[in-house]
Amino acid sequence: MTPAPFERVGRPAPPGAPPGTCWEPVIIPARIETITEQVMVSPAEAGTDGSAGKPAVFATETRQVITRPREETYFQTPCPEELTPEYISSLQRALAARGLYVGDITGRLDVDTRAAVRAYQQSLDIQSDTLSLQAARSLGLSAVALDD
């Protein structure tokens, strides 16, 4: 099955990514905290004779603070043309051998397969159900580049 023309045009990749490589973006949303405080607008005032005068006046102030900015990172993936039914079947068998996939070996990247991929990649600190090249290599599914 050939990919549709221009299928990979416009797909995000990190700056400086080598041509012909495929990448998946991971967007970590910003963490925003809402802080609500009671602020004294005016202090209590006692009467001239020592009696209770006016009570203190408070106002509620609410503000939002970004405690972690939004981050965008990438991880390398096998390219779509590599993800043949035979490759996906091997992926399913490798995940089943590790107790992460219990479905039928279908050769399709279905919901159960993606859940198993996510579970496997957590140990690699990759929070995605898209198969990373790092995970594919560690499962013995993709070639490991050797240093010259």
Keywords:
148 residues; alpha+beta; two-stranded antiparallel sheet; two-stranded antiparallel ribbon; elongated; disordered N terminus
Structural class: alpha+beta
- Tally the beta strands: 6
Tell me about the largest β-sheet: 2 strands, antiparallel
**Percentage of residues in DSSP E strands:** 25-35%
Question: How far apart are the first and last residues' alpha carbons, in Å?
Answer: 34 Å
Following the backbone from N to C, one meets helices and strands in this order, namely EEEEEEHHH
Low-confidence stretches: 1-10
Instruction: State mean pLDDT (0 to 100 scale).
Output: 88
- State the helicity in percent bands: 10-25%
Strand order of the largest sheet: 1-6
Helix segment count? 3
Shape: elongated
Cα Rg: 28 Å
Task: Report on this structure.
Strands 1-6 form a two-stranded antiparallel sheet. It contains three helices and six strands; from the N terminus they run ββββββααα. It is elongated, with a radius of gyration of 28 Å. Among the domains are: 38 residues, no CATH class; 62 residues, no CATH class. It is 21% helix and 29% strand.
